[in-house]
Amino acid sequence: MAFNAKVYKVLIASPSDVSEERELIPKILHEWNTKNSEHYKIVFLPIKWETHTIPTMGGRPQGLINKQIVETSDILIGAFWTKLGTHTGVAESGTVEEITEFMEQNKKVMLYFSNKPVMPDSIDYEQYQRLKDFKTECQSKGLYDTYDSSELLKEKVTNHLTLFANEHGESSVSLTPITNNQLSVAFYNPKNETITNSITGLRRAYSSSTFIKEKIESLKQLIHKVSSINLPKKNDADNNENIDNIIKFNINSPIIISNNEQAECYEITKQITGIELKGDFFDFGDLKKSTLNLAIGGGTTIIGTDKEKEKYDLFRDYEVMLFEIKGFLDYFNYLDGFSIAPLILSNIGHQYNESITVKLTFPKNVQILTAEQIEKPNYYVIEYFTNNLLESILKPKETSDLLEYYCAEQYKPALPITNIPLPFSYKESFEDKLKTLHAEFEDETEQILYFSAYISSDAQVLKFTFDELNPSTSMWFPCYLLIKANETFDINYEITSKNLTQKITGTLKYEI
Question: Terminus-to-terminus CA distance in the chain, angstroms?
């Protein structure tokens, strides 16, 4: 059905190094029009010199462009990356001259500066310095925004167009009161891909996953390799044939696995694989650990036959793998002890929202895992969890219907680390290494379990922040909440936003 709408001409202004953005921005405008024009009675018409100017003689090129499209446009969207452009004789560049014309006429200007990576060899540093000076000048004249990717630019331009439409369209905030159905919190059930206000506690069996099964199978194969190497007992002649080496190397002692270590390996192996190790599994024949004579430089080496060395190397591989698997199983069993609450924030109305705060209130007898409370994996596996494994378990991923959680505050780049050369003699102790691993794990969990928690007089409260959310859009919370409870309970939520005149409240039911 036909409808009347106000058409705004949107001039797309940029230097030559942002050709991708020049192609993207018109598509953003067209997509916004498709979804929102009928509601707001506004249409954004993209204008570019490539498509909306005609060849003309008798004037300064930029002056001719100004007359044909700049003077008649209503909004300017500008994008910059590493260049400012060529001086026009009037302004630092054609883009700058267009921006100046808009500002002098008090027309809407939306500027975006790219933080996308760039090859240093491709930068014209004179251009880049001029761009930095212009960016500094913009700070004193108003606001601009930045983006790290085309996806983020699309999200921000879309949101800012919606804000403009709210102020100037027929369905703007001033004309349509905000109702309590704009934002809501809900569960997303991954089993049937439904959004619901009630869910039965979900559990993940990481300890019986394919990942663990494959590692156990590899351990069994390694045990078989160690067990298949049979070492004959050496006679006295064999023991004495390398007497020169014994004198030369000052052999300290034979390599022997202690009874306690053997018993520990035996019990863990039986528990994990069901295999009972034989006594000769820990026998390495006449293998010895030798300390080189100080006169020839010092150091440690292993003395023995090739078979003895091969069995010992395989045993060490087995031992590392054994304690790795134990570390994975211990930590997976720990995580498996919690139920999962997969929460999303939905904007089910036509109102764009930003600076959103969500507070969730739980009964005091419900245990919720926080970054401060989470246990640390053992030494053998902690780096696996720090390097993406914990994130892959606890952080929901974007789908066609749900956005991945994003908050600019959470993803602030870390401060650069200055590498201070250490003395040649420095060797990191086990305690120092473990302290470093624990600190890195704590940083990782703070990024994943990204919420604050506090106790009120009669409940416990979790607080989450969201930068912004478009109309008809849903976004994951930053992580799956890990919960322990003995009985079904309610989660009460409270939502506030820069764009809401009153807070929104609701209740979810978590069934045990």
Answer: 50
Say how far apart CA 99 and CA 39 lie, in whole Å: 30
Note whether 149 and 303 are within 8 A (CB): no
Q: Residue 245's pLDDT is what?
A: 47
Angle CA 222–224–228, to nearest 5? 120
Question: Is the pLDDT score of 104 beyond 80?
Answer: yes
The per-residue pLDDT for 299 is 56
| Three-class DSSP category at 101 | helix
Burial class of residue 420, CB neighbours in 10 A (0-12, 13-18, 19+): exposed
Angstrom CA distances, 101 to 25, 132, 161, 180, 488, stand at 21, 21, 21, 42, 63
**How much is the average pLDDT of 114-127?**
85
Q: Which two tokens stand for residue 111?
A: 């500027």
CA distance 410 to 95: 33
Question: What's the pLDDT tens digit per position in 139-181?
Answer: 767 667 888 888 889 988 988 898 888 777 765 433 334 444 4
Phi, psi angles (nearest 5°) of residue 274: 85, 0
The model's pTM: 0.60
What number is the average pLDDT over the span 179-193?
A: 76
CB 75 within 8 A of CB 9: yes
What are the C-alpha distances in Å from 497 to residues 141, 183, 469?
27, 9, 10
Q: Is the dihedral of CA 134, 138, 139, 144 positive or negative?
A: negative
Residue 164, CA distances (Å) to 40, 44, 107, 479, 506 in order = 10, 11, 12, 32, 30
Beta strands in 222-292 (DSSP E): 251-254, 288-291
CA distance 448 to 333: 20
Per-residue confidence (pLDDT) for residue 428, from 0 to 100: 65
Contact 348, 219 (CB under 8 A): no
Residue whose C-alpha is closest to residue 352's, from 174, 75, 154, 160: 160
C-alpha neighbours within 13 Å on the C-beta side of residue 122:
7
Beta sheet of 288-291, edge-to-edge order: 251-254, 288-291, 300-303
Q: What is the pLDDT of residues 362-411, one digit of tens each?
A: 999 999 999 999 999 999 999 999 998 999 999 998 887 789 998 877 77
Is the distance from CB of 10 to CB of 47 less than 8 angstroms?
A: yes
Which helix or strand (DSSP H or E) is residue 265 part of?
Answer: helix 259-273
